Amino acid sequence: MPRQTILREQVLAFWESERWAREWFDHKGYDHFDFPQTPGTMPISLSKCGGKRPDFAFSLNENESLVYVDAKFHATNNITEFGLTVEELKKYEAFKKWALNELQDDGERDIILMLYPQELNGDRFTWILLDELLAEEDTIIDGKPAKKASLLGREDFWIGNP
């Protein structure tokens, strides 16, 4: 497949997973904030520390428990596993530190991945905590060090899209 086609499909998948996530938040009535994702909107201080913006922040309850969410549309080896490169995981960790310092975000703040398996075409998703993925087994993805989590045994945690 030509590189341009692959890049185009990756960009479309990125936007689709965000759209599905936004629809789910709206359907559930969760107040949420969309982090701007277009080029040129990354805070310079976040860029300098090597961070990556999640797609959303939302509050779980009235006590202002804030959660950062990044929607992912990924191949999952027939819905059996999910992995990210260590490089990408470090960018999320950098964001967490940045948020603590720059946003005076002093509460317990989790980053959660909202995983839409490509094999399910956006019909269902599951949550994966960043900390959970960081604690998982080492692997290699596209020749790079990575972490991989099993999706088996999560049947009760799959959520349908509205």
Give the total of beta strands.
Answer: 9
User: From N to C, what is the helix and strand string?
Assistant: HEHEEEHEEHEEE
Main sheet? 6 strands, mixed
Determine the number of helices (DSSP H or I, runs of at least 4 residues). Answer: 4
Question: Describe it for me?
Answer:
- The chain has 162 residues and is α+β, with helices and mostly antiparallel strands.
- It has one domain (3-160): Trna Endonuclease, Chain: A, domain 1 (3-Layer(aba) Sandwich).
- The protein is built from four helices and nine strands.
- A six-stranded mixed sheet has the order 1-2-3-5-6-9. Strands 4-8-7 form a three-stranded antiparallel sheet.
- Residues 1-8 have low confidence and may be disordered.
Characteristic key phrases:
Trna Endonuclease, Chain: A, domain 1; 9 strands; alpha+beta; six-stranded mixed beta sheet; single chain
Task: Chart the SSEs and their pairings.
Layout (H helix, E strand, L loop, with lengths): L2 H26 L3 E3 L9 H5 L7 E4 L6 E9 L6 E5 H17 L7 E8 L6 E6 H5 L2 E5 L2 E7 L8 E2 L2
Parallel strand pairs: 3-5
Antiparallel strand pairs: 1-2, 2-3, 4-8, 5-6, 6-9, 7-8
Quick structural overview:
This protein has 162 residues and is α+β, with helices and mostly antiparallel strands.
